[in-house]
């Protein structure tokens, strides 16, 4: 999709943008990274498991999903629905006081 704000050119990302990072399993040195990136001219949302090596460097694993950024609203809606259901079932606490 072109963007009229930049002369009709498709928006691009010069480098991946890390959105969030948190431990999935600290004992196994696995963390979950959420980022925005670009591949072959397509902007992506990437949710991936990384493994921390003995050298302290996080490296991506094949475990995860990358999809078109256009799917981000659907993904957010699904995640929010899962959170609502989990709160309703008492599986996680609500942030509300």
TrEMBL record:
<dbReference type="Pfam" id="PF02229">
    <property type="entry name" value="PC4"/>
</dbReference>
<protein>
    <recommendedName>
        <fullName>Transcriptional coactivator p15 (PC4) C-terminal domain-containing protein</fullName>
    </recommendedName>
</protein>
<feature type="domain" description="Transcriptional coactivator p15 (PC4) C-terminal">
    <location>
        <begin position="30"/>
        <end position="77"/>
    </location>
</feature>
<dbReference type="InterPro" id="IPR003173">
    <property type="entry name" value="PC4_C"/>
</dbReference>
<dbReference type="GO" id="GO:0006355">
    <property type="term" value="P:regulation of DNA-templated transcription"/>
</dbReference>
<dbReference type="GO" id="GO:0003677">
    <property type="term" value="F:DNA binding"/>
</dbReference>
<dbReference type="InterPro" id="IPR009044">
    <property type="entry name" value="ssDNA-bd_transcriptional_reg"/>
</dbReference>
